[in-house]
Amino acid sequence: MEPFKEGLANFVATITAGMLLSTGAMLIAVGNQQAKVAVQIESITEKLNTLTDNMSGIEIRLRTLETER
Predict the structure, then answer these.
(1) Chain-centre distance of CA 42, in angstroms?
(2) pTM reported for the whole predicted model
(3) pLDDT digits (tens, 9 = 90+) for 16-69
(4) Half-sphere exposure (CA, 13 Å, Cβ side) for 22?
């Protein structure tokens, strides 16, 4: 009976270790995705800032044209 208990204990330990490794891998994958999303958000923010600046420039030009008329 003792070899059976040892075998079962080893089996449970192996399954537990595998689950922990799998969970760790998933956490790493989620972390990588979060980093990619953060970079994309930063890029979008920069583009929105550029668009805002461009719109300000267009608005100034339009006002200048209106006053010249």
Answers:
(1) 11
(2) 0.61
(3) 999 999 999 999 999 999 999 999 999 999 999 999 999 999 999 999 888 877
(4) 6
